[in-house]
Amino acid sequence: MDASVKKIPLTIGSHSYNIVIGSEILSTIDFSSVMLSPDKTGYVVSERVWGLYRDYISQVFSVKDAGDFIVMNDGEENKNYRYAEQFFEWLLGKGFTRKSMLVAIGGGVVGDFAGYCAALFMRGIPVVHVPTTLLAMVDSSIGGKVAVNISAGKNIVGVFYQPAMVLSDVRFLATLPDGELKNGITETVKHALIGESSLLAMMLNHDLKSIKERDTLEEIIYLSAGFKAGVVCEDEKESGRRAILNFGHTIGHAIESVMEYRGISHGEAVAIGLKGAMEISREMGFITREDVSVFDECARRYELLNSEHRFDPADVIDHMKYDKKNYGGRINFVLLKSLGVPQFDCEVPEDVLKHVLSGL
Ligand SMILES: NC(=O)c1ccc[n+]([C@@H]2O[C@H](COP(=O)([O-])OP(=O)(O)OC[C@H]3O[C@@H](n4cnc5c(N)ncnc54)[C@H](O)[C@@H]3O)[C@@H](O)[C@H]2O)c1
Q1: pTM of the shown model
Q2: Contact 275 CB / ligand 1 (< 6 Å)
Q3: Is 238 in the active site?
Q4: Measured between alpha carbons, how far is 109 from 140 in angstroms, rounded to an integer?
């Protein structure tokens, strides 16, 4: 393997695997550690990524039978239960068995969908994630949460299912639109604020233009993915510390939900949520104005906050009470005790919450 390739080893329970990060790395990977001689390999590929990288993907995986590519329209609406059932039937029709494996090539939608199907097909076949968005490289491909949506809500039906390998090839990011890049940057800023100080220093040293340089992206993905990997190795099923990864997401999810997922990206909503969580942490007397300004500086450098979004704080509070991560009408916040020191399960008085939300 090339010296510039970065590797993050993970051990979760009895399962060990690697996250491999680099440029143009796919052809150098040896799959024998994933499964010795699978009888069939199915490649679930995002339609958009297939359109952009068909030659590269076909060549690096040396796929002889084009029928083993499953090109998926990766709109969020297709990450669903019914599509999964069709997919299982397709796999059976193509002769997939317990000795087969899947490779998911795309953003978080493809990764969640293919991971969910791999977890259930024949009670579980290996899945390799090849994330092609920054968000998928630093967040969704790591930690084994896989799920599909039902009409009652997003990611409601799912399991924890660890991949056999994650291959983050930075080459794919060259075509990622800025809006999608920012969705990933927001998660990276979150990791930087809640614990990865060298990542924070890097984020404060770059901007939306300079971060696109390949070496910079590789280093940022390495630090950000490494931080998340460390957290999930400690607490796979989110019975404790893994909850810190929800920093900024309690408010962010509620805003997305109030806005019915229209006119606001996940990254924009989480960025507002991060600002809210920083301000609440300050109002509770944990962090200083200077600490909050560290987030503000990241938001400025990467253009994460969009001041045009309007929402009613009372609606946001109502939605937070229904979040699946909250229970008993209690809203559980992740706050910062100080920069890099998160605390989960914090209760926040409603007047503090209202005050902060109306200032966002
Ligand atoms: N499992 C987890 O822990 C976890 C964590 C966070 C998010 N998620 C899930 O991830 C999904 C969001 O993932 P996402 O942000 O990667 O979005 P996505 O998968 O919807 O991809 C975003 C867009 O970018 C396109 N795209 C993908 N790669 C590209 C490339 N290299 N060049 C150009 N375009 C490209 C896709 O076609 C899509 O239009 C959601 O479904 C969310 O629920 C899961």
Answers
A1: 0.96
A2: no
A3: yes
A4: 9
